Amino acid sequence: MIRRTVIAAAIAVFVIAVAAGPLLAAREPGPAPAQAAPDKVLAIVNARIVPVVGPEISKGTIVVRNGRIEAVGAEAAVPAGAEVVDAAGLRAYPGMIDGCSSLGLVEISGVAATVDNQETGRINPQVRAIEAVRYDSMHIPIARSNGITAAVAAPSGGLIAGVSCLLRLDGWTHRQMVVEPAAAMQIELPGLRAARGAFAGRRSGPPPADGPALLKELRRIFGEARAYEKRRDAAAGNGLLALPEFNETFEAILPLLKGRMPAMIAVHGERDIRAAIAFVRDENIKAVFYGAEQGFKAAGEIAKAGIPVILGSLYDLPPVWEDGYDALYRNPGILAAAGVKIAFSSSSASLAKDLPYHAAKAAAFGLDRAEALRAVTINPAEILGIAATMGSLEKGKAANIVLADDDILEMRTNIRKVYIDGREVDHSNRYTELLDKFRR
Amino acid sequence: MKNLALPLPRAAAILALAGFVVAFGPRPAAADGGDILIRNGTILTVTKGVIARGDILVLGGVIKAIGPDLAAPPGVRAVDAAGRFVVPGLIDSHTHIAVAGTNEGSEAITPEADVGAVVNADDASILTALSGGVTMVHTMHGSANPIGGPNVVLKMKWGRPSEELVVAEALPTLKFALGENVKQANRTVAAGRERRYPATRMGANAVIRRELEKARNYMARWDRYKKAAAAKNPPRTLVPPKKDLRLEVLAEMLRGERVARCHSYQATETLEFMGLAREFGFKIQCFEHCWEGYKIAGEIAAAGIGISGFADNWAYKMEAAEGIAEMAGYCARKGVLVSINSDSGERIRRLFNDAAKTMKYGGLSEDEALRLVTINPAIQLGVDRIVGSLEVGKQCDVAIFSGHPLSAYARCDMTIIEGRVYFDREALAREREAAAPAAAAAREVGGLQ
Amino acid sequence: MRISIVARPKPRVSPAVIVVLAALALDAAAPAPAADVGPTYAIRGCRIVPVAGPAIEKGVIVIRDGLIESLGPAGKVRIPDDAEIIEAEGLQAYPGLITAFSSLFLERPARSAGPEIPFEGPPPAAAQGTREDTFPPGPGLFVLDQLKPSRAAVESFHRAGFTTALVAPERGIFEGQSVILDLNGEALLPMVIRNGAALHVNFTTERGAYPSSLMGTIAHIRQSFIDAEYYAARQAQYAKGAAGLKRPAYDPRLEALVPFVRDRRPVVFQCNNVEDIKRALKIIAEFKLNALLAGANEAWRAADVLGKAPVPLLVGLDFRPPAASRYTTQGEELRKKAESAIYPANAAELAKAGLPFALVSGANADGTAVLKAVRAAIGAGLAEEAALRALTIQPARFLGLDQALGTLEPGKIANVVLVRGGLFDEKVRVVRVFVDGVRFDYETEEASK
């Protein structure tokens, strides 16, 4: 009797758990509670404020309370008792956001023991970057002290690489760093170099993996996941129907199919971009493209489809010679001019600090400078769905503020202070520690 | 007109050839003849200060005059650099471009494997280099071996035959390497094969020492033979030593006719190699990468050795995990002759960006930072008498940037070697548009709407 | 139409030849060599293109016992009483074509036809051994020992007019020694004109062993010639007086190299791109070799250098740009254009520059495909007459066989090709071929109608 009850209870729990699965997946684990914000009020005065959204303020004040921006403006009053930071000669920017990195997942790329961004196999929607982020990564303080206050940490490899997360670059644990635990499902189509043979006469790559064929495979998997969900939900509501066996792949994909998570689709060549646009439309999923090296050849179509683009590292050669030596440099400008919302990424951990320089490089080759700045601040915030709290210096947003002695996208510029949620972050990092240690 | 009698296919072939060279690469710059007048640019001479607005007159590839309002002889092409920055062509002290093959990795000791013997003037990396304002590179043997091979200094004269690329004035160099690459720490050994000796830093030092001893012995045997052969009646049974290409190269270095360029990362291996140089009496011109150089900057500076390093490319392997971006600037301030290298066919086109990073991370001035990719590598390569700065009498290797070359927003617009234009961004863009009207049309339809 | 191309009864065909030809036709076992005294033929009524002089309309060629006895206009040449008369009205007679570099009868698929394997990355770590014991004794290998003659291969070449072929070895750096064959049947040894015709050297690598890079390969080639010279000198010294001298150790590899460095026997360097040509020329000059360059598909790009030091060129007819070429490194469009329009003009450019060259079949085992490629070279500007010389007298001279081959002249070997149409016409039909006076019929009267 007892046994029967236990079993019945167990079944009930299981059924409820399965039925509730998608909902739980949607909620869980939720943004980490904000760290205790300092009670004190901060006022940054005399700064040249570049709010990104809205006009530049040649000399103004930013008031921060409880980790949020309370006021921005030339006329903003300094509250009584506020800690005043004189930023004369400095410019205030919103913290930059890295659209795709391997921060926290890769320490030393050549040492396998320190690499956690590439799972084995091709279809891994069940792996979540957040569960492996090394919050003490030596690369995070270096990126942070260069004005980057948030970053997507993404798994890579295979066709479905796993689920990326969005981190604020401060926190005592990785869970405290979480802005969005499930930022995107990372999907990867083959690079152009593999498809077209290598640049500069190097050995040709393996036979081209066919982007459209891979998208077809994804359609099949998505179809199976939907069928699985239907059977599962039907069985949950009807005890006479057999419960399908738990399938971790389909379970992990369903949030994407339900629109609760976007796909970040790494897509590179013109043909694959067109195929991916159709794929996104047909599957009715939220998507952002990553890479899009030949996006300039289909910029209008990308814009029309309303799919934003997170550019890959510009530290690369054009994979197709005929596109021109500067194809990767010109691409962002052409995309933006066509109306595509673009954001930059470091696509790195050890060089995540270089995020602003990718934007500057694109600006040297045709991208509007203001748009270049947006593409490392408000654009990634909008693309990642966090523009309500990040990406610009506006009232009500998190106080992610960078004080720099010059243009923030310039290499020669020094970053003087960085605030995340109103807290000034420590500028010391692996570089400074080692230099101090060995300075003679 | 005899040309009209060309068989049609041949004419087509010639037209196609011309068309494609134009479309896909800067024209080989033979026609300019090395005479050019660069006008109205902001000139960063590197060694003689900044000229806010000035001209550079070049005749026969050599700078004849620098100053305001220079007049050129009739027929000399003038390039307007108004609003732009004119700087010495950048020099990359450590690359592996424009050659067929990088490593003779089958054995640990291969000084006979001469990079200069395998120059490939067709490597499109030359174009990549030009597009970043680089006019000269030191193309080196790879780092697979404790002793690699002789290296070669090349000018990026795209379209010219390989022999014209080689810079004969450069100091002869020999590549050494230490650490993880040499001990093959990151390689799996195929089943049934033994790990190559050396597999430790101890072993690497030991094999270098062994080879240096062999070279000494070889030199002594030749000396003895020559002495005996020069005698009045040399014995009939006198047998000369056999010429050994491997040891010949080491002997050149021990005689001071060739300098060492040593790939090193860690402080210990770097110091030990300096010990070997003292013991055997050879000159180390430069340590390559030298990521831990900041730990021993004083020792390196005192020994008069240079560093050819990265700006911030680090943490890709264990021995690069303490490679801090401050290294170059810090060591430069400690008195080390530092250059920033690319070591890459991609990074080479943003060498000027890498130099700029030393301002942020090493606290260098603009002038100091620019030296890291101009006169300093020229000194390291022994070519500072002919290039590396803009001075009357030097060869006119020049890069023209859209802005200050240490600005992240700067773009290289033109690259000139010995007065000849090898890279012209605007001409290239025009030619690209002309060559691909179909592609442009497609872009308008599908792209800009 | 008859089944056999040779079964047509003719009263005065030598029984021996009947045996040979029947064997060929029926794919029987290889027959005995031709009889001691071969038959006599009088080819009558054809247009003769002797290459040695102007064409003869309506001529007669008399072949006796494998040699050309006489030739000239009909009426001026006496037709011997014992001659079998071959009516050749409407046909043209050419000297048998010579390919001075082929892989005929080699069983493996030919040397990497087209783009060579790029030299890239080190091979799997090899245990460190001494260099001496890692090399196979390549220079002493005779390719003759590896050949597997086949009727199909002979017929394929005959049908393109080829009667003589140098067969080159194709593995390794020192690939071995070639053989020159007259394609006079199916048995191998009777075909041999000269074994050990040349030493063949290729700029390739030893997979997984030293040398694994082009740098190492060049060093290895040079060291090998140095060693051979040293070996020869020691042997000579010892031969002059053994007393007091240690006996030089016997080394089959160096022994095989000695004739090439000491006696200037011919050395053929395989040159797949313009840089290979320059590399070979340096080695040739260093060791004063009697050398030829094979492949040479980019020889036009080295015309300047070759003009200063003319070396016979055995020009291949593979028009694919090599992997490292500027025509390959700048995108797919240019590569395709180069293959169709630029590389076929190589021979025409060489002719224009006055450089000595022969056209060779190389790795191509299909005779008609070789002829097609010759037509492409002609289409790209090569004069037909130059093409003909490059396939006849020029290779004969290069191989030192111009006393016996390469033209139709009395006293020369009776290698005669009778074709319907011009040799380089697309619709050319090879009707009959004589090799060493042995007759092969490839077109019946019926088939020709």
Fold and architecture overview:
The complex is a heterotrimer of chains A (440), B (449) and C (449). By secondary structure, chain A is α/β, with parallel strands linked by helices. Chain A is 32% helix and 20% strand. Chain A has helices spanning 2-27, 139-144, 174-177, 192-196, 211-237, 248-257, 270-283, 299-305, 327-337, 355-364, 369-374, 378-383, 430-438; strands spanning 42-49, 57-65, 68-73, 83-86, 91-94, 96-101, 148-153, 160-168, 178-188, 263-267, 287-291, 309-311, 342-343, 401-404, 415-420, 423-424. In chain A, the strands form 2 sheets. In chain A, strands 1, 2, 3, 4, 5, 14, 15 and 16 form an 8-stranded mixed sheet that branches. An 8-stranded mixed sheet of chain A has the order 6-7-8-9-10-11-12-13. In chain A, helix 5 (211-237) packs parallel to helix 7 (270-283) and helix 9 (327-337) crosses helix 10 (355-364). The radius of gyration of chain A is 23 Å and the shape is globular. Chain B has 449 residues and is α/β, with parallel strands linked by helices. Chain B has 14 helices and 17 strands. In chain B, the strands form 3 sheets. In chain B, strands 1, 2, 3, 4, 5, 15, 16 and 17 form an 8-stranded mixed sheet that branches. In chain B, strand 11, helix 7 (267-280) and strand 12 form a beta-alpha-beta unit. Chain C folds into 2 domains: 15-95 and 412-448, Urease, subunit C, domain 1 (Roll); 97-398, Metal-dependent hydrolases (TIM Barrel), CATH 3.20.20. Chain C contains 13 helices and 16 strands. In chain C, strands 1, 2, 3, 4, 5, 14, 15 and 16 form an 8-stranded mixed sheet that branches. In chain C, helix 3 packs across helix 4. Residues 1-33 and 109-134 of chain C have low confidence and may be disordered. Chains in contact: A-B, A-C, B-C.
- Rg of chain B over CA atoms, rounded to whole Å, is 25 Å
* Helix-residue proportion of chain B: 25-40%
The CATH architecture term of the largest domain in chain B is: Alpha-Beta Barrel
| Shape label of chain B | globular
